[in-house]
Q: What sequence folds into this?
C-alpha cells in the first residue's frame, strides 16, 4: 500500500503500486457516487427558482462541511481506486466499464450522461477526449506494465457522439519506440464511428513525476 506521509520519498507519477480496493468508501459508496453524478445531471439542466437555489445551497453547504471531515489523499480516495465501479469510481471521468484490458488493448463500454452535454443534445468533444486519455493511458500501462503520461492526444471527431447511449471504445498501442507508445483508439455507436485518436504516451522513468 502506498503511504502518502511526507516522510516517504516521492514515488513518481501515478504510483504503480497503487492500492486497489473494492471496499474503500463502504458498501454504499456506489450509490453515493451515483447520487453525485445525478446531482450533476440535474444541475446541468435545472433552472431553479431562487427559493430552491437558496434551499439547495443550505443542503449542499451542510453536506460539503460534513465531507470536509473525511477527506483523504488521492492515493487512498475511493474515487479512482474502486475498480468495481464505473471509471474506477472516478466521478470526473465519463463512466465506463472495462470488458477487456490486455497488452493487445483495452475494450470498454462508455456512456456520456446529461452533464456531459456539449450542445445540440450531443456529447461535449472535450469529454470524448477525457475518455480517450484515460483509456489510452490504461492501454499504455497494461502494454508496458508501467505508468505513462500523455504527450499528445489528437481526436478526430468523425460524427456526433450521443448522450445516454452505451458506446464501444477501444484503445491499443499501435507502435512502441523505447519509452514512446503510439496509441490508437476508436469510439463507436454501434457500427458508426464517432471518433478516433492518434496519441503519444511516454513511459515514465522510475520516480518520474
Ligand atoms: C486502480 C487501477 C489503476 C489503473 C490506472 C488506469 C490508467 C489511468 C491512466 C490515466 C491516464 C491519464 C493520462 C494523463 O492525463 S497524463 C496528464 C497529461 N500529460 C501531462 O501532463 C504530460 C506533461 N508532459 C510531461 O510530463 C513530459 O513532457 C513527458 C513525460 C510527456 C515527456 O517528458 P520526458 O522528460 O519523460 O521525456 P522527453 O521529453 O525526453 O521525451 C521522450 C521522447 O518523447 C518525445 N516527445 C515528448 N513529448 C512529445 C510530443 N508532445 N510530441 C512528440 N514527441 C514528443 C521526445 O521528443 C522524446 O523523443 P526521442 O527524442 O527520445 O525520440
A:
Amino acid at each position: 500500500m502506498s503511504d502518502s506521509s511526507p516522510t516517504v520519498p516521492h514515488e513518481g507519477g501515478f504510483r504503480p503500486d497503487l492500492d486497489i480496493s473494492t471496499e474503500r468508501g463502504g458498501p454504499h459508496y456506489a450509490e453515493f457516487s451515483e447520487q453525485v453524478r445525478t446531482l450533476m445531471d440535474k444541475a446541468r439542466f435545472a433552472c431553479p427558482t431562487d427559493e430552491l437555489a437558496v434551499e439547495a445551497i443550505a443542503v449542499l453547504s451542510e453536506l460539503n462541511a460534513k465531507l470536509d471531515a473525511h477527506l483523504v489523499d488521492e492515493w487512498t480516495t475511493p474515487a479512482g481506486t474502486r475498480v468495481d465501479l464505473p471509471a474506477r469510481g472516478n466521478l470526473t471521468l465519463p463512466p465506463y466499464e472495462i470488458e477487456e484490458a490486455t497488452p493487445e488493448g483495452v475494450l470498454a463500454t462508455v456512456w456520456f450522461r446529461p452533464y456531459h452535454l456539449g450542445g445540440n443534445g450531443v456529447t461535449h468533444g472535450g469529454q470524448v477526449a477525457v475518455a480517450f486519455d484515460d483509456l489510452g493511458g490504461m492501454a499504455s500501462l497494461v502494454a508496458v506494465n508501467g505508468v505513462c503520461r500523455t504527450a499528445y492526444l489528437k481526436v478526430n471527431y468523425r460524427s456526433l457522439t450521443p448522450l445516454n447511449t452505451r458506446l464501444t471504445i477501444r484503445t491499443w498501442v499501435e507502435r512502441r519506440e523505447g519509452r514512446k507508445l503510439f496509441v490508437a483508439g476508436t469510439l463507436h455507436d454501434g457500427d458508426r464511428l464517432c471518433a478516433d485518436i492518434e496519441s503519444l504516451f511516454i513511459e515514465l522513468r522510475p520516480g518520474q513525476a
User: Anything to note?
Assistant: The chain has three helices and eight strands. The beta strands are 96-102, 105-110, 117-119, 122-123, 148-157, 167-177, 180-189, 192-203. Confidence is low (pLDDT under 50) at residues 1-10.
